[in-house]
Amino acid sequence: MDPIDLLLHPVRLRIVHALFGGQLRSAGELCERLPDVPRTSIYRQLGLLVDGGMLEIGDERRVRGAVERSYRLRADRRTIGPEAGKTMTTDAHRRGFAAAMAVLIAEFNAYLDRPGADPYADSVGYRQGTLWLSADELDVMLTGLREIVAPLAENKPGPGRKPYLISPILFPSDEPPATS
Questions:
Q1: Which of 13, 15, 43, 86 is most buried, judging by how many CB atoms fall within 10 Å of its CB?
Q2: Over the stretch 83-117, which tens digit does the pLDDT of each residue have?
Q3: C-alpha triplet 50, 61, 27: angle, nearest 5°
Q4: How is residue 154 annotated by DSSP?
């Protein structure tokens, strides 16, 4: 299955997010992490992600007579390569955006449902604003963001660290005004 088609599904995308940072999780752990998703859906989507080459089985152990598998993202497989956006249809972009928004809403609700959730203390933010940018200014801004975020995206879980979901969304908000 094409990586784009494989990931344009909210549950599969949430599973991939749950495995970022080198996480190794069993299907049971993923069910606990995604309590709003039926167990059968987790197992079905895990199978598709393994068959599609996004995940690999990182460990197997016997638990009460059954084999429990733990999954991880394949290090040799990019989720969606940087050039994929050029080949995606507008319909694929719509599906991708809808899947990303569904994941964002589900993850935010899961965060708020956790005992002790404190959006203020956790620096939760969801703001929108408009920037008027030339093509050069847009390029400078995106380059700067990549330079800030890329090294942090390499961080692994560790003492004092907790995962933060970052979801930058950028698109032109309307037609540029006509110039005379």
A1: 15
A2: 777 888 888 888 888 888 888 888 888 889 889 99
A3: 45
A4: T
Within a 10 A sphere around the Cβ of 136, how many other Cβ atoms? Answer: 8
Confirm if 96 and 4 have CB atoms less than 8 A apart. yes
Name the token pair of 36: 């709003």
Answer whether 0.90 is exceeded by the pTM. no
CA 33 to chain centre: 14
7 burial type by CB count under 10 A (0-12 exposed, 13-18 middle, 19+ buried) = buried
Output DSSP code: residue 167.
Answer: -
Return d(Cα 73, Cα 15) in angstroms, integer: 10
Segment 11-66, tens digit of pLDDT: 998 898 888 877 899 999 999 989 889 999 999 999 999 999 889 998 888 888 88
d(CA 1, CA 161): 35
Residues making up the chain, counted from first to last: 180
Give dist(CA 133, CA 51) in Å, integer: 43
- What domains does the chain contain, in order, with CATH numbers? 3-128 (1.10.10.10)
E strands, the chain, in order: 25-26, 55-63, 66-73
